[in-house]
Amino acid sequence: EDQVTQSPEALRLQEGESSSLNCSYTVSGLRGLFWYRQDPGKGPEFLFTLYSAGEEKEKERLKATLTKKESFLHITAPKPEDSATYLCAVQAGTGNQFYFGTGTSLTVIP
Amino acid sequence: EAGVTQSPTHLIKTRGQQVTLRCSPISGHTSVYWYQQALGLGLQFLLWYDEGEERNRGNFPPRFSGRQFPNYSSELNVNALELEDSALYLCASSFPGSPPYFGPGTRLTVT
What we know:
Low-confidence stretches of chain B: none
Mean pLDDT of chain B: 95
Number of helices of chain B: 0
Oligomer: heterodimer
Low-confidence stretches of chain A: none
Number of helices of chain A: 0
Strand content of chain B: over 45%
């Protein structure tokens, strides 16, 4: 069964303390992996798409990387405004179905 | 470019009532997805529509239904509301090869 697992479930960081969030997946025929940011009570905001192992994408303090089994979202010198839930999703197989992980809730303390 | 829009923003219903939620996708997107997100929980897949057809549905009872119109907009209907249906309902749209882009959601409260 296709599955997406995110860890940790929650992460508290001091402002400036870099860390990484993990998204591991077991799917057949990966077509794309996507990262989103979700603020409380709002819809997820698209961040990155990764298509193949070795690919990296960057945006401000965030960098997403992809291997054959997992993806990492690296957060460098985070600020309180980076506090949010980060979701990853994969698209696999021949259809247009997406599978979401349950997210990592990030809190950055000033 | 306008994003995904949803209406209403929030609503309050009584148990046993029926509700219809609406979603307008990004122009050019042919697929619409519906998700339920209960407070503090992850996204639960409800329904996927593409080119007017229901392509897949999640593990929800038949009282959750919907449709997609020729202009690719979509509505989600929930009959016989139960307290546990209280959640943020999210609509997303995509076209082949693109990730899903989400709307702001509709907050449903069932009392």
